[in-house]
Amino acid sequence: MADFDFDAVVVGAGAVGLACGYALSRRGLVVAVLEAGPIIGEGVSARNSEVIHGGLYYATGSLKARLCVQGRRALYAFLDSHKVAYDRCGKLVVATTTEEVGRLDAILDQARANDVEGMEQLSKGQALALEPELACEGALISPQSGVFDSHGYMLALQGEIEAAGGAVVTSTPFEGASPLDGGGYSVRAGGEEPTTLTCRLLVTAPGLAAQAVAATIEGFPKATIPPLHYGKGVYFRLTGKAPFARLIYPPPIPGALGTHYRRDLGGQAVFGPDLQFVDAPDYTVDPGRAGEFYSYIRKFWPGLPDGALAPDYAGVRPKLHGPGEPQGDFRIDGPEAHGMAGLVTLFGIESPGLTSSLAIGEEVAGRLGL
After folding, report:
1. Which of 143, 214, 217, 357 is most exposed, with the fewest beta carbons within 10 Å of its own?
2. CB 260 within 8 A of CB 244
3. Environment class of 307 (CB within 10 Å of its CB; exposed 0-12, middle 13-18, buried 19+)
4. What does the pLDDT look like over 46-64, one tens digit per residue?
5. CA 76 to CA 86: how far, in whole Å?
6. Of 108, 103, 113, which Cα lies nearest the Cα of 142?
């Protein structure tokens, strides 16, 4: 690490930033992860479904398809070895009308193309035998899907980085970077004690701030920064006994996977997220949206009682597509994209970013030639 304060600096201590720091630490690098907020993982990583995705839907050859499957396999092994709680409960993708049954065929074909293990088509009777309160005309089962303790996972990643001699520093916003003569970067970090530190490698993974962070790197080609769209989703929690053991998903909607059901690790039922494009991050949950949730959920669970949904929380996804546009891929831009050696910038890391995080870290290390 001669002449540098750190081998690498990672911007953002959410799941993906920490996974990038972990991947670099595993290669013997001393890493500093800078987090603007007061605690790790309080941004996008704290406001999601905590679902471990199988990798069914994503386009053949996309980063999402490859990294979701690789990341899921690595994630279960990591959770086991670090004793982080999870429930590999499986998922049913349900067709609630005969018209939707044909869509299941396409999803099954895509899942198999993506090398997702254990996928099977179920008849209506087979699905109801597994989940008697379900209403559907047919379903797919993804046995590799599950839910997990995402904060416990992030704490384990932080522990690995620190055990390797690195540092995860909160309340320390990244304020810009400049390339150094001969390679590496000078990084300006703010907070109560602003400082400048040097590093050989720089990775930016700050979620909703990805575009703003890239714009503060001296010499970064602004034309390569994609537009940012805020995709808000709200969740409602069920007051009462969870009706299903497995994740229940309808077929995807344009731009997202649709409002789905999960039983969290505490045994409570949660529905969401929906998708609403907003002009700025906003985490309020309008109780008035419950009406849409009731009608949507009753398509697959007609037994949902009146008055059983309580507003829970909201998340905002850093989308690269706007309303009515098809959902795009992750953007993981190395020197081949922006022309700056030793730098990788991540954009649009929304679902399945949490599931994919360990594989994203490995991909970033590869883009840096490690």
Report:
1. 143
2. no
3. exposed
4. 999 999 999 999 999 999 9
5. 8
6. 108
Which residues, 6+ apart, have CB-to-CB distance to 99 below 8 Å? Answer: none
pLDDT tens, residue by residue, 229-276: 999 999 999 999 999 999 999 987 766 677 899 999 999 999 999 999
Q: Whole-angstrom distance between the N-terminal and C-terminal Cα of the chain? A: 15
Query: Comparing C-alpha atoms, which of 318, 329, 249 is closest to residue 60?
Result: 329
Query: Token pair 């985490």 is at which residue?
Result: 283
Do 141 and 108 touch, CB atoms closer than 8 A? Answer: no
Tokens for 90? 């499986």
Instruction: List, in sequence order, every beta strand (DSSP E) within 30-145.
Output: 31-34, 51-52, 86-87, 91-95, 120-123, 138-142
* Residue 312 · residue 272 · CB < 8 Å: yes
Tokens of 9: 């600096």
Residue 17's φ and ψ, nearest 5 degrees, are: -60, -45
Contact of 185 with 204, CB cutoff 8 Å: no
Pairing relationship of beta strands 247-249 and 229-238 according to DSSP bridges: unpaired
Q: Which two tokens stand for residue 94?
A: 């349900």
Instruction: Quickly tell me which residue has 């690490």 as its tokens.
Output: 1
In tens, the pLDDT along 21-55 reads: 999 999 999 999 999 999 999 999 999 999 999 99
Cα separation values, 305 from 19, 223, 301, 359, Å: 41, 51, 10, 41
